[in-house]
Design goal:
With 144 residues, this protein is α+β, with helices and mostly antiparallel strands. The chain contains five helices and five strands. It starts with a strand and ends with a helix.
Length: 144
């Protein structure tokens, strides 16, 4: 019997964003988003947990080489987003809200097809020490 193994790696990046909806008035935006709707934005030191799964390779015993996963996350997420204003400096958020929920979905979309035979199982994004967002392999299929 072959057992599926899960691997989680943790990454960090710092980004600014502004919570704002052009479909709301300024007063409504302030009521919904509070200080997070500051016109200049605000920042977070994000912690990103990426969990992949698969059957370990019979030659290496690994689901994926860790340095390959690190390179993929670096290229797709860290490099374009770290120390950037997500709404102003990245193409990923043009026409998208930069809420934690949407950031998590975009991470999922950017990583899910790049994992060398492994499967993306979960994304967990810590925005603060008391708030995080998660996408799961089973849940994502019903939402996308």
């Amino acid at each position: 019997m072959k057992l599926k193994v899960y691997l989680t790696r943790i990454y960090r990046f710092s980004s600014a964003h502004r919570l704002y909806s052009p479909r709301l008035t300024e007063e409504e935006n302030r009521a919904v988003f509070g200080n997070c709707g500051n016109p200049k934005g605000h920042g977070h030191n994000y912690i990103l947990e990426v969990t992949i799964s698969g059957i370990p390779d019979p030659l290496t015993g690994m689901v994926i080489r860790r340095q390959n996963l690190d390179r993929i996350v670096e290229d797709k997420i860290i490099q374009p987003w770290d120390h950037r204003h997500l709404d102003e400096d990245t193409a990923d958020f043009k026409g998208n809200f930069s809420t934690g929920e949407v950031i998590t979905r975009i991470v999922w979309e950017k990583l899910r097809s790049c994992l060398e035979g492994a499967s993306l199982s979960k994304i967990k994004l810590w925005e603060t020490s008391s708030s995080f967002f998660e996408y799961f392999e089973k849940d994502i299929e019903t939402v996308l």
